[in-house]
Specification:
- This protein has 239 residues and is an alpha/beta fold.
- The protein folds into 2 domains: 128 residues, Response regulator (Rossmann fold, 3-Layer(aba) Sandwich), CATH 3.40.50.2300; 97 residues, Arc Repressor Mutant, subunit A (Orthogonal Bundle).
- 41% of the residues lie in helices and 21% in strands.
- The protein contains 9 helices and 14 strands.
- It has a 5-stranded parallel sheet with strand order 2-1-3-6-7, with helices on both faces. A 4-stranded antiparallel sheet has the order 8-9-10-11, with no helix packed on it.
- Helix 3 packs parallel to helix 4, helix 7 packs across helix 8 and helix 7 crosses helix 9.
- This is Response regulatory domain-containing protein.
Length: 239
């Protein structure tokens, strides 16, 4: 994943020190991170999460209405299938704090004061680990997907078919998790930004995708159902 792609990720910065927030936000924006939401406490952070759906959170440990560890658990409860990457920012450098961060699943821990370059490098490392490079060409039993151009090449007929925006979002999420089950909620979130009330629409889109990629849509070989859980995309290494 290129640095430019990393910088398109939405960041949530939570710290009760206004000056530090301004400094970090300005630093991130100067580095090209164009989506930085700020919050001074737990309640503001929860509201900012709902509004911006961040892809990485920078959390201070000590907050006026709680602590970063509890906030981390709150934020991750929103999407348990795709935990939000978290880096803790704190003035403390104590073993107990580090252990508490690890227990709640922190991805990294930066002690104040920190250099701007150190924070940027740690953020990039976490983003690369949590958001692998987007697969552009995906090989299936009967089709080759060009996700960058939303194109399907069917090998049985040789025809090219175009994916809709929703179909591409669903296939992109499945391809990122190739040969693994992806839950219905995660796929609905990827396509519609919400997991509530879209299960039936997802089934309709899956059926249309199968018509484009499968030799026999009624006997799918590539996009298969994991009953009661979600779907799996069976991807080949190459053709």
């Amino acid at each position: 994943m290129s640095d430019q792609s990393l910088k398109k990720r939405r960041i949530l910065l939570v710290d009760d020190e206004p000056e530090l927030r301004r400094m970090v936000a300005a630093m991130l924006e100067a580095e090209g991170f164009s989506h930085v939401a700020q919050a001074a406490n737990v309640q503001e952070a929860l509201a900012a999460y709902r509004q911006t759906k961040p892809e990485l959170a920078l959390l201070d440990v000590m907050l006026p209405d709680g602590d970063g560890f509890t906030l981390c658990q709150y934020l991750r409860a929103f999407e348990p299938d795709t935990p939000l990457p978290v880096i803790f920012l704190t003035a403390k450098d104590e073993t107990d704090d580090r252990l508490a961060g690890l227990r709640c699943g922190a991805d990294d821990y930066v002690t104040k004061p920190f250099s701007p370059q150190e924070l940027i490098l740690r953020m990039q490392a976490v983003l690369r680990r949590c958001y692998p490079a987007e697969p552009e060409t995906v090989y299936l039993e009967n089709a080759t997907l060009d996700l960058a151009n939303a194109d399907v090449l069917r090998r049985d007929t040789g025809e090219h078919l175009t994916l809709t925006v929703k179909e591409r979002a669903i296939l992109d999420t499945l391809a990122r998790n190739a040969n693994r089950i992806v839950t219905t909620d995660a796929l609905c979130e990827a396509a519609w930004g919400d997991s509530f009330g879209y299960a039936q629409s997802l089934m309709t889109h899956v059926r249309r995708i199968r018509e484009k990629i499968e030799k026999d849509p009624s006997q799918p070989q590539s996009l298969v159902t994991a009953k009661g859980l979600g779907y799996r995309l069976n991807v080949l290494k190459d053709r």
